[in-house]
Amino acid sequence: VSPPQEKGSTFLQLGSSTEQQLQVIFEVLEEYDWTTFALVTTLLPGHQDFVDYVEVLTDGSFIGWEHRGVLTLNLTDDPEGTRLRRQLREVTAQIRLLFCSREEAESIFQAAADVGLTGPGYVWFLVGSGLGGSEQLPLAA
């Protein structure tokens, strides 16, 4: 009896909670000694929980985290993205944790690329649910 023939592979994508994603991200930050970071978020439901959980992770840690603040973006009343680009330039940390929807991420990463914030020296961690399910990630070129 021969084993069944494989007809391609199966891709299993499991969703994880924002808390689980942040725990992993903070382990990576600690491993690389990236202790200075800023939060960038939109008004997506759950954004305050995101901010609160980051505070829980950093306040209860022995690591000397340097939290450089929270930038909350309102993309709906900035159709040209002028304010978005200005606000992104004002964030002083090179490590940025971004909480937003997939559609918002595309606009944010495009604006970040426009002002030179996606090249070497900048690290973005995209956090949130509903970010998968596509072959192309919402990253700027």
UniProtKB/TrEMBL annotation:
Record domain Receptor ligand binding region: where: 9-126
Highest taxon of the lineage: Eukaryota
Any Pfam family: ANF_receptor
Gene: Grin2d
Cellular component, GO, one term: membrane
Protein name: NMDE4 protein
InterPro entries: ANF_lig-bd_rcpt (IPR001828), Peripla_BP_I (IPR028082)
Subcellular locations according to the entry: Membrane
Keyword vocabulary terms for this entry: Membrane, Transmembrane, Transmembrane helix
